[in-house]
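call fold(seq) -> tokens
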Amino acid sequence: MVEGSCKAYNRELDPMLKKIFTEYRKTHNQGVFDVYTPDILRCRKSGVLTGLPDAYGRGRIIGDYRRVALYGIDYLMKDKFAQFTSLQSDLENGVNLEATIRLREEIAEQHRALGQIKEMAAKYGCDISGPATNAQEAIQWTYFGYLAAVKSQNGAAMSFGRVSTFLDVYIERDLKAGKITEQDAQEMIDHLVMKLRMVRFLRTPEYDELFSGDPIWATESIGGMGVDGRTLVTKNSFRFLNTLYTMGPSPEPNITVLWSEKLPLNFKKFAAKVSIDTSSLQYENDDLMRPDFNNDDYAIACCVSR
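ret:
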């Protein structure tokens, strides 16, 4: 996909990069084709099976970027090291050896990646070794987690997750302490959304013919109900929707309202108004999804039918 995209825009791919991802490191697309059966390949070639372009980035990823703000990188790295050492006994005793070796290898990579996120944030002048202490840090720390993901992976959908209610805890605490005003809170969310709108990936012309607006589906799932019957709508849910007024309509971030009959009436009215005015919201049936997962902390990857 990258090679084709570079050619389309009269750019030449670094030969060493091509060599690495051809001879040493398999791409996701190559992995998919390696497992196709002969019948599937024939059906694709004949047009019986159709879909997205072959070189389309197939990943749909939702990282829990909230963890960076909640715990800080140092704690997350310490936890990964504890996970790594907990497998020592299984390794030495040959318990499920292949899976144990693979898991230790993956955890080691995760530990290194967390350190790289910390280094990246330091280059921006931020120390994210510890937990966020206020709303501004919570938003910034969470964004750093997302920024690290989009810098290292150009999946078809790089969803943001379900952060609005999480961030509201920090914002509400600062509001009550008199550290910020409601205008400050809205501006911080505006700035976060602005950063999400700036993300771009290298895509092929075939991709652009299918989708307009350079979408990356930075999906933020908003609202929904808790399994205990309480709504997960907060003031911050309104702030995210309000960015479509403060900065105008945009396909990104892909704001998704988790719709439930039990949502607060004023939020349902506001979401309906925003939809009519901007045509920029998508909806998902929370009353169906929540019981299916038996969990109120799920999120949407990519898009759903509007």
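The beta strands are 60-62, 157-159, 220-223, 255-259, 282-285.
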